[in-house]
Amino acid sequence: MQAKRIQLLQGTPLFGGILDTTIDYLLCNNCTVRVADEEFFFHEGDEADGIYILESGSVAVLKDWQKQQYLLSRLAAGDCFGEIAMLDLGQRGASVLALEDCTALRIDNNRLFGLYEQDIEQFTLIQMNLARELARRLRAADERLFQNHIQAKNINGEYRFVTM
Q1: What pairing do the DSSP bridges indicate for beta strands 102-108 and 68-76?
Q2: What is the per-residue pLDDT for 60?
Q3: Which residues pair with 54 in a beta bridge?
């Protein structure tokens, strides 16, 4: 079972290129989390305590605004969420709802920072992978924002240049 989990993590952007022994260290004995359909992994505003990698199931990432929840994305097996917690140790920026029964691996922030003391090179590689993944997501969000901005400025089928 552990070999399968190591392979799952190595197939994600955050843990690509990470050694088996490092992932084995990060996957402590109590890292499996099971969340039932329509239950939350965590809520926006909760204290951040680690990251999750879905082993099975699917989730919705939701953002609260003016007392309503908005869908940011859907994630499936192999996807990670809660990774910003690895950087800022702040509150959760969104809620994550199970869309079906889910199993996930949870990597505790303390375990990750224990890796810093144990193997700085592997810790640094994970941080670099995290930065690349967040940059990729930021680039995609910027593109969506730009496209929405251009569409909003479309007048009579023509685009006009707008200065901000």
Answers
A1: unpaired
A2: 97
A3: 104
pLDDT in tens, 9-65: 999 999 999 999 999 999 877 789 999 999 999 999 999 989 999 999 999 999 999
- Asked if residue 52 belongs to a domain, the reply is yes
Output the CA torsion 117→53→93→71 (10° steps).
170
Q: Find the distance separating the first CA and the last CA of the chain, reported in whole Å.
A: 54
Contact present, 50 and 108 (Cβ < 8 Å): yes
Q: Looking at the chain, how many residues does it have?
A: 164
**Which residues lie closer than 8 Å to 86 by C-beta, 6 or more apart?**
51, 109, 112, 126, 127, 130
Q: What's the token pair of residue 134?
A: 């967040």
Q: What CATH number did the domain enclosing 116 receive?
A: 2.60.120.10
Cα–Cα distance for residue pair 79/67, rounded to 1 Å? 27
Query: What does pTM read for this prediction?
Result: 0.84
Q: Do 82 and 51 touch, CB atoms closer than 8 A?
A: yes
Q: Is the dihedral of CA 135, 79, 63, 30 positive or negative?
A: negative
The model's confidence at residue 4, banded by pLDDT at 50, 70 and 90, is: confident
What's the structural domain count of the chain? 1
Which of 7, 72, 68, 59 lies closest to 33, judged by CA?
59
Could you tell me the residue range of the domain that residue 109 belongs to? Answer: 2-152
